[in-house]
Design goal:
The protein is of the alpha+beta class and 450 residues long. It contains twelve helices and 19 strands. A six-stranded mixed beta sheet has the order 1-2-6-3-7-18, covered by helices on one side. A four-stranded antiparallel beta sheet has the order 12-14-10-15. It starts with 6 loop residues before the first helix and ends in a 12-residue tail after the last helix.
């Protein structure tokens, strides 16, 4: 039965989310980290969990659990750190002041990932006596590469034993169906630095002084062609094409192509892709993106300057069987062979992809519960985004289901969730826990779906 929350429970959840959004826990800037960890520790204790803040050598992990002696255990993976709020001028209200407008809660982290934390906490609170053992792992470095999480998982593996992991996020699509993701792409976050004269010079000297902005532009252009192909030798090594069965499944996934284009303000997708081809590229293809670039004067008007430095930030999305270290090595060799030996390459984060097979029985359990709560669900083989899910898919099935919507604006100004989705997401998690508690299987790991 779909759970209806009373007014006290709803008020608790909204106040808890508001308090968490107010903490500017921006890992890239090192703000609010300890405060957010302590806030969550105390919040989990409020709802009857044994909660601790565990050190990692970096931003701490909040671990909370309640062992009710059940035969099954659910693990919720989340993160309390958020992206920087800039550009501030594009927010309709202050990013760390939660604001409700027209049924939405606005604020940095409202969706990614604080709303999902609170929805899951509300589900546990409302159940009072959960039918499964409950564990939360909430880290503070997801937005900067989770660099200390692998060691934490290795050292604290006993804390993470579970039958099912509910991953951090998930959204409803334009038609209101919950989108369920079964994995994440891997990532390499890179910086390219080019240097010229020791200080900015007058641009009249450009006939005789090398310009690092041109060097950087040529290096970037050498890595990706006009047809969007990545020209780094060895980049595609190991990449698996989707099977015929997977392609047939993609063709059946509901996809509002026109609605998505309108939301993006585009006439067409890249290279004119349409229908299932869009989804194939999104979920099965690696990608190389320039996420930031800068050199010289960028203010209003003109300034005839020859810059001394130029820098670009890249994020490379990886699919299963691509190894981050090998891809990084291929890019390094590409720059050397191309004569760009003077460009400094830095890797700021990197980890591989991870997926749960679509035929895993727990997928049916989570999707069936979503069908009851939302009236429908769409299963994606993976997310187009990245996360350290590979650390957990080696141990248990991991499935994403969350409280976002098609316009939640994760990582962008005016990030939001609908208040209604906060409670629907909590109801979904409560139903998943109830179904998991009822399931039986001789193996103790893969009960049949509904």
């Amino acid at each position: 039965m779909v759970r209806a929350f009373d007014e006290e429970e709803k008020r608790w959840a909204l106040e808890a989310l508001g308090g968490l959004i107010r903490i500017p826990s921006v890992s890239a800037q090192g703000t609010g980290i300890g405060e957010a960890a302590r806030y969550l520790r105390d919040l989990f204790r409020q709802i009857g969990l044994d909660a601790r803040v565990l050190e990692t050598g970096g931003n701490p992990v909040v671990f909370a659990e309640r062992d009710v002696g059940a035969g099954r255990t659910i693990l919720f993976y989340n993160h309390y750190d958020v992206q920087p709020p800039e550009p501030l001028e594009l927010w309709s209200s202050p990013p760390f002041e939660p604001t409700v407008r027209e049924g939405r809660i606005y604020g940095r982290g409202a969706y990614d990932n604080k709303g999902n934390i609170i929805a899951r906490a509300l589900a546990v609170k409302a159940l009072n006596e959960p039918p499964v053992n409950v564990r939360f792992l909430v880290e503070g470095e997801e937005e900067v590469g989770s660099k200390n999480l692998p060691r934490f998982v290795e050292e604290h593996g006993d804390l993470l034993e579970a039958d099912l992991c509910i991953w951090e996020s998930g959204s409803r699509d334009e038609a209101g169906r919950l989108q369920i993701d079964l994995g994440c792409k891997g990532i390499l976050a890179l910086e390219l630095h080019a240097r010229g004269p020791k200080a900015d010079l007058h641009s009249s000297l450009s006939p005789i002084v090398p310009n690092p902005a041109w060097r950087l532009a040529w290096a970037l252009a050498s890595m990706k062609g006009g047809g969007e192909e990545i020209k780094v030798e060895g980049f595609y090594d190991g990449v698996l094409e989707p099977t015929e069965e997977e392609l047939e499944y993609l063709a059946r996934i509901p996809f509002d192509e026109r609605g998505r284009l309108e939301r993006y303000g585009l006439e067409e997708f890249l290279r004119g892709a349409r229908g299932a081809e869009v989804l194939r590229k999104l979920y099965y293809s690696p990608a190389m993106n320039i996420s930031g670039i800068g050199a010289g004067y960028q203010g209003e008007g003109s300034k005839t300057v020859l810059p001394s430095v130029a820098m670009a930030k890249l994020d490379v999305r990886l699919v299963p069987e691509q190894r981050p270290d090998k891809v990084l090595g291929a890019i390094e060799r590409h720059l050397q062979r191309g004569g760009f030996w003077d460009i400094e390459l830095r890797c700021t984060e990197g980890y591989p992809a991870g997926r749960t097979p679509m035929d895993n029985p727990y997928v049916g359990l989570v999707a069936g519960a979503a069908g009851e709560v939302y009236g429908g669900a769409v299963i994606h083989p993976t997310s187009a985004g990245s996360g350290p899910i590979y650390l957990f898919t080696k141990r248990m099935p991991c499935i994403s289901a969350g409280v976002g919507h098609a316009g939640s604006n994760a990582h962008a100004p005016d990030e939001s969730i609908y208040v209604e989705n906060l409670f629907l997401g909590a109801g979904h998690m409560a139903l998943v826990m109830e179904r998991l508690g009822e399931a039986t299987s001789p193996s103790g790991r893969t009960p049949p779906g509904p």
